[in-house]
Amino acid sequence: MENFSVTYRHCYSSLFLHQSHRRYLLNHSSACFSLDIKHASFESKPTSVSLEPSSSSWDFNPLNELNGCKNLISVKATHARMMKLFDRFELEYIAKCLITRYLEFGDFGYATTVFFLGFPRNQVSWRDFLERTENFGVEKYRVLGEFVQLQNKGVNFDEVVLAMVLRICAVLMYRLLGLTIHGNLIKRGLDNSDTRVVSALMGFYGRCVSLDLANKIFDEMPKRDDLTWNEIVMVNLRSGNWEKAVKLFRVMQFSGAKAYDSTMVKLLQVCSNKEGFAQGRQIHGYVLRLGFESNVSMCNSLIVMYSRNGKLESSRKVFNSMKDRNLSSWNSIVSSYTKLGYVDDAMGLLDEMETCGLKPDIVTWNSLLSGYASKALSRYAIAVLKRMQISGLNPNTSSISSLLQAVAEPRLLKLGKAIHGYVIRNQLWYDVYVETTLIDMYIKTGYLPYARMVFDMMYEKNIVAWNSLISGLSYTGLLKEAEALISRMEKEGIKPDAVTWNSLVSGYATWGKTEKALAVAGKMKKNGVEPNVVSWTAILSGCSKNRNFGNGLKVFMKMQEEGVSPNSATISSLLRILGCLSLLYSGKEVHSFCLKNNLIHDAHVATALVDMYAKSGDLQSAAEIFWGIKNKPLASWNCMIMGYAMFRRGEEGIAVFNAMLEAGIEPDVITFTSVLSVCKNSGLVREGWKYFDLMRSHYGVIPTIEHCSCMVELLGRSGYLDEAWDFIQTMPLKPDATIWGAFLSSCKIHRDLELAEIAWKRLQVLEPHNSANYMMMINLYSNLNRWEDVEHIRNSMSNNRVRVQDLWSWIQIDQMVHIFYAEGKAHPDEGEIYFELYKLVSEMKKSGYVPDTRCIHQNVSESEKEKLLMGHTEKLAMTYGLIKKKGIAPIRVVKNTNLCSDCHTVAKYISVLRNREIVLQEGARVHHFRDGKCSCNDSW
DNA sequence: ATAGGGTTAG
């Protein structure tokens, strides 16, 4: 290990040579080798420009020869012949021609070499060279080096040369040299009206000194032309001051100056990131007005601008309208599709592209890879990789980061390691993206030590690397270690940013420590980082994950007090909480908020709305939203199926499942939990078996304890107690408390004392503190009139200090939630409620209602039992709803435990007598009463 | 220097 890490580090240092130095070495050595200019002098004497070469003295005319060259190879051959015949280029114009030809065929390295080694440089040649090579990737460091040498020898350059050198200084961040040149310009009396010099100065100041000074230079100019206008807009864009840039752009249009293509392309780029979409659209209009639509780069930028603002259709429109398209155009539209999640459509574009005779390049493939990676579709990502390799392209650092992202889950560790191997073999580890995704991959696959190793070996740890490890530790619950790492990074001089703090916040929040998470949010504020939407959403989602719903609502209110506005993620978390609390009316408010704020098209939000409506007992609204989602994500199907399960609408639930398969969506673990719940709640035994088998054989989903528990309950409740027993004996997982609980509840329904007592024995060991199990036994014994056993269970309950679960029901009226407890605090309007309830009961009795006292498990007289029956919390809540809620809206009551059969009957009567729909929710199931019938068909 | 691909927090 020790050795390995040493070589690793060694390779790093050689790879971390400054990129331009590397390029310098590379070009320089190859140029010397192939040109064989061993004796070429760097100290060439200036020669006066002579006349045409006399043809008599040469049997080959280099100028004619060069001009006749059709490709790079023949230029090189001519060059070599010249080198053999002459020691060096005596004549400037031959060198110039050589440079021109090299530049024409795109070999900047040779062009530069010829310039530096081949002929004497004076002002004129400098100027000529710089003009020709401006905007090309020539070797700027060498140019500056030569400039300084000549300047030191006393060569005096004119303004145009200085302007160009200033531009190079700006790009290379040579602050001192640039300032010296400015000084010289001032000394010799800088002419403010020379726009070439002044715009170069603005560019230099904007990049290397300060934006304000650049703007000041602009303000003090006596006259401005296209060049200076475009320059100042560009300077502001580069410095990120896009508001000022947009303002200047408007004034510029007003003043009649003409915008360059490049300025508008850059402007579009900025508009695609920020809230500058309106401006982006205006520029689109400007483009159309001025007839720029034939400019390919401009259209490509427009495609990207629209897609980054989520307007895929507009992107496509621009793409379709283009007369000429290059590879970048295709890549732009491909990335538009992948970034917005339509990777399959992007794959379709690949074929279209090939019919147009264009071959996808590495960028195209990487775009597709990243699309699948961000959706965690590892199989598809790997398929893309294979196609890419078949086409002769090898993955680069960009491909590797995507691939690593795709395989970042425990079951794909082997693949992750293989990719790590590839990275090492091909020396791709110098790239920070590769390193950080490696860290992240090892964290998500549960290999923390490996993540640490990659981190420790990093040559230069950037903030993302620190954050990756910190988030990994927080995610795993190693919060002390995460805090220690934060102090360490502070010691090493790296200031934690919002992501660092948020990682810690979310760590505490997901591990159920809301208070601690809030404290960290306060701490980050003290450290000068304001808690943002993500911080708040992390805490909110922590509350929701830990079923800490009340706190969640408080956190949401606090967030609003702090003036942080919610986004789609916040809303999704909030909706989950509201759904779990069945706060339908608050959920509806959030729904309208989504409509107002254009969040309704967000797939996560829509899914959360489906879930909220289903959980709050409004299945119809859930279904309406569900069918309105354009590209339904897997989760939304799962929620919808679960919704039908809760309402016991088996046929419809299975129909949705089939529709999902037809849509080509592959079901996952949760889908099958939902489908089996549908079967369980609707008593569909045959279907249950079918899907349980299908799940394993066809979809490779390994049964979880939830699936097994569904099967036990399905078989048991349907009366197949022996089959349920056999299932438990042969199931692939060790039966836990949920399994035995499900079995016991079935035994209770079918009054099978013998099997119930076996289950009860197991439960006393597995779950001795769950009052629900005790209640089931009390229920069973009392139904068999075995009051001694009832007493026995009650005693063991108090001996084990098991608290009887609180029983309550609630109803939401306007903004208030009214809770009715079985014991303890009475409702302030209790008198009025009982008055109405007794009135209802006497009406019901006239219609044939007989109180069902079987659910009173106390050994008391019948009339006493009837009285107890009237005190059931759901009856009180329903009655209160009838009193307070006028109109025709359904009465919605939520109960925290199961309904009793008498309340079920009463609800049916009320639905007829008061002509009102009633929705009664008991934990994970819903009863919907209408016209004297219940959606469950009385089977539960 | 103008268009296309990648990393961390919910």
Structure in words:
InterPro entries: DYW_dom (IPR032867), E_motif (IPR046848), PPR_At4g14850-like_plant (IPR046960), PPR_rpt (IPR002885). Helix 17 (296-308) packs antiparallel against helix 18 (312-321) and helix 23 runs parallel beside helix 25. The protein is elongated. With 940 residues, the chain is mostly helical. The protein is built from 50 helices and six strands. The protein has a domain at 808-934. It binds one DNA strand of 10 nucleotides through helix 15, helix 17, helix 19, helix 21 and helix 23.
Briefly summarize what is shown.
This protein is mainly alpha-helical and 940 residues long. Helices cover 67% and strands 3% of the residues.
Please outline the helices and strands.
Blueprint: H1 2-15, H2 19-35, H3 62-68, H4 72-85, H5 92-104, H6 108-118, H7 123-133, H8 140-152, H9 159-172, H10 175-187, H11 195-209, H12 211-219, H13 226-238, H14 242-254, H15 261-273, H16 277-289, H17 296-308, H18 312-321, H19 327-339, H20 343-355, H21 362-374, H22 378-390, H23 397-406, H24 413-425, H25 432-444, H26 448-457, H27 463-476, H28 479-491, H29 498-510, H30 514-526, H31 533-545, H32 549-561, H33 568-580, H34 584-596, H35 603-615, H36 619-628, H37 634-646, H38 650-662, H39 669-682, H40 685-697, H41 705-717, H42 721-730, H43 737-749, H44 753-766, H45 771-783, H46 787-799, E1 808-813, E2 816-821, H47 830-846, H48 862-870, H49 873-884, E3 891-895, H50 901-913, E4 918-922, E5 925-930, E6 933-934
Parallel strand pairs: 3-4
Antiparallel strand pairs: 1-2, 1-3, 4-5, 5-6
The protein binds one DNA strand of 10 nucleotides through helix 15, helix 17, helix 19, helix 21 and helix 23.
Domain DYW: 848-940
PPR repeats: 225-259, 295-325, 326-360, 361-395, 462-496, 497-531, 532-566, 633-667
Family: Belongs to the PPR family. PCMP-H subfamily.
